[in-house]
Amino acid sequence: MLFLFLRKYFKSNFKLLIVKELIFVIIGNGVAGFNAAQSLIKGAPTDSKILMFSSEKYGFYLRPKLYEFLRQDLKIEDVISYSKEYYSKLGIELHLEEEIIAISPKDKIVISTVKQYSYDRLLLANGAECYCPVVPGINLLNSFSLRSLDDAIAIRTRMKTSKQAVIIGGGLLGLEVASACAERGLNTSVIEFFPYLLPRQLDAEGGKILQNILEKNQNITFYLGVKVQEILGKDHVEGIKLLDGIIIPTDIVMTCTGITPRIDIFKKIGMKTNRGVIVNDFLETSIQDIYAAGDIAEHGGKVYGIIPPSIEQAKVAAQNMMKPRSVKYTGSKLSTSIKVTKLLVTSIDYIGKEEELKYSQRKFLIPNEDIYCKIFLDQDIIKSAIIIGTKNGISLLKGNIGSSYKSIEEELNQLFSETK
Ligand SMILES: Cc1cc2nc3c(=O)[nH]c(=O)nc-3n(C[C@H](O)[C@H](O)[C@H](O)COP(=O)(O)OP(=O)(O)OC[C@H]3O[C@@H](n4cnc5c(N)ncnc54)[C@H](O)[C@@H]3O)c2cc1C
User: Fold this and answer.
1) Architecture of the domain whose range is 143-255
2) Is the CB of 366 under 6 A from ligand 1?
3) How does pLDDT run across 364-387, given as a tens digit for each residue?
4) Does 2-129+259-322 match 335-418 in CATH topology?
5) 2-129+259-322 domain in CATH 3.50.50.60?
């Protein structure tokens, strides 16, 4: 009797038991889009479809490669990690040079410059663009910002015929671009609004040490704690005027003053946005079946703007797109190790001036070796650290955030006394 009932029940509900093939659409083929697609390929049912859209014309590349592109005479192929063929082999439908210009969540479609496409789950991974301050002359010829490979191609072409360069912004991007200009023999200046370099990664003392090293090794001139009043020139850039009246002649200007997430099309459909698209711990936006990851996403009030969190978010978003609310994202650690002109600069959980004011500090400084390490403590507990010029201490400190300083003091003393 029970058997007959079950047979009848399953027969009439058979359709409900079939897993529907899902259409996953990803807007953006940067590091977030690419990593989400990789996770979907591994985990989604085989009859699912994955469609990706990129407004750029290239396959996948990592943006830090653009520094090398500026420094050396790399070919475009040397920058691209995966071409369109790679995606085809995996069964991903990649639409290059096809921008998504609108979304209709009600009909579950995205509309591109070519046609419209349905989605079941949509990932916003369309990143950010450069933030450029509103300064007279910013749109003159030879005034650039660097985000894409096309930007890098235009900048490198101009660098080759320039003698002088000015970079606005003394953050990570600005310093890398400045060092590429200096290495190509351009007379290079950096203008920074903050009184020291890398204000997001370093304290004032660390910033000053970095500045000394760059002045000594790279012959870069720094103008710190100043603001640009105007970029001078009729149709093309001829110089920069600072608010204090100083004029710096130049053939090329590069603005490296941060990023703006590309939120315009999402604001139009009433999605919750702030600086970026607001996401919850499942990387869901305020609209059902739409997720966000990478530089577009704002989680816990933060737009990280760097690669490691973009990858972490992409993987979690993809899991939740396959199986809603299955994995939580609880935020990323703010640790970065970067090479500024061959010098390793590491910032572990450092959040800026707040740390300096709130916490006590321990310091290791080896001036002749250009090595500096500062550790921020709440009582005896390690909260954050900055290290310049060595890889020593990085993994020890990373692994001991939240632990007692005393427990590793001896090891640190030994590491830094051995540091060369
Ligand atoms: C020169 C440079 C160097 C960097 N170096 C480092 C570094 O050393 N370490 C680090 O951690 N981070 C670095 N970053 C930051 C890092 O690259 C970003 O955090 C990361 O690229 C964010 O990835 P994303 O996929 O969210 O966005 P993006 O990389 O910006 O990719 C988004 C993609 O979406 C496309 N797109 C946008 N809108 C649309 C649309 N409407 N339709 C279709 N496609 C669209 C864009 O063209 C772009 O290709 C660097 C950035 C730059 C520019």
Assistant:
1) 3-Layer(bba) Sandwich (3.50)
2) no
3) 888 677 889 999 999 999 999 999
4) no
5) yes
Q: Which residue ranges make up each domain of the chain?
A: 2-129+259-322, 143-255, 335-418
Helices (H), 145-221: 149-159, 172-183, 204-218
169 C-beta neighbours (distance < 10 Å), count: 25
In short, whether 356's Cβ falls inside 6 Å of ligand 1 is no
CB of 169 shorter than 6 A to ligand 1: no
Quickly name the fold that domain 335-418 has. Answer: Enolase-like; domain 1 (3.30.390)
Report pLDDT for 14. 43
Q: Give the tokens for residue 49.
A: 């479809």
Reported as type and span, the H/E element at residue 67 is helix 65-71
- Residue range 187-201, pLDDT digits in tens: 999 999 999 999 888
Show the DSSP H helices in 272-360 as ranges: 307-322, 353-358
Segment holding 182, helix H or strand E: helix 172-183
What integer pLDDT is reported at residue 342 of this predicted model?
77
Between the CA of 123 and the centroid of ligand 1 the distance, in Å, is 15
Q: What is the pLDDT, as a whole number, of residue 11?
A: 46
Ligand 1 contact via 100 beta carbon (within 6 Å): yes
Does any ligand 1 atom lie closer than 6 A to the CB of residue 292? no
Which residues of the chain have a pLDDT value below 50? 6, 10-18, 420
Atom of ligand 1 nearest to the CA of 262: 38
